[in-house]
Amino acid sequence: xxxxxxxxxxxxxxxxxxxxxxxxxxxxxxxxxxxxxxxxxxxxxxxxxxxxxxxxxxxxxxxxxxxxxxxxxxxxxxxxxxxxxxxxxxxxxxxxxx
Length: 98
Prior knowledge:
The chain has helices at 2-8, 30-42, 55-68. By secondary structure, the protein is mainly α.
């Protein structure tokens, strides 16, 4: 960090911080829980506000925000998002996320 700060003039000091991070309750929610923790840290909220039980709500919220902010469905196109793993869903008017 010191070399970067010398080159850019940004972030002249780096402070190490240890966090007591909540643990996931299953084997699949680690990514969403990591996003919840990152959001709490970025907003200066205590990690006690991160509730592993609310992971399913956060997953639905993030999925909905991604779908709302993605490009519109194009009937003539082959995808409803710009990610390489997206493909045209079967049926009409289907919103989906994998």
